[in-house]
Amino acid sequence: MDTDLHQIIRSSQALSSDHYQYFLFQLLHGLKNIYSVNIHYRDLKPENLLVNANCELKICNFGLTCTSSGKVQFMTEYIVACWYRSPELLLCCDNYDTSIDV
């Protein structure tokens, strides 16, 4: 992969509506695949979305992921992406689901 989405956002390169739609489509498709195997990603940010010259997007850095098995488990409120906190984390919920990524 050539760069990440953060670098593309910061660059002076103009993006069309088609670019935005294609990135969003790939992101949502990737999250669907991650959630289908019961994984919470928990660190979704532009720096963790790699992009190549063909505008193909890949999700990377699975360091904060956790599984959502049938067992009740403690989930930390601390997530590295401090510039965005989901309402579940702001309210200090210790049992959340995949909605924290969206």
Automatic annotation (TrEMBL):
Keywords tagged on the record: ATP-binding, Kinase, Nucleotide-binding, Serine/threonine-protein kinase, Transferase
InterPro entries named in the record: Kinase-like_dom_sf, MAPK, Prot_kinase_dom, Ser/Thr_kinase_AS
Pfam family, one: Pkinase
Domain Protein kinase per the UniProt entry, residue ranges: 1-102
GO molecular function (one): protein serine/threonine kinase activity
Record-given protein name: (wild Malaysian banana) hypothetical protein
Organism of derivation: Musa acuminata subsp. malaccensis (Wild banana)
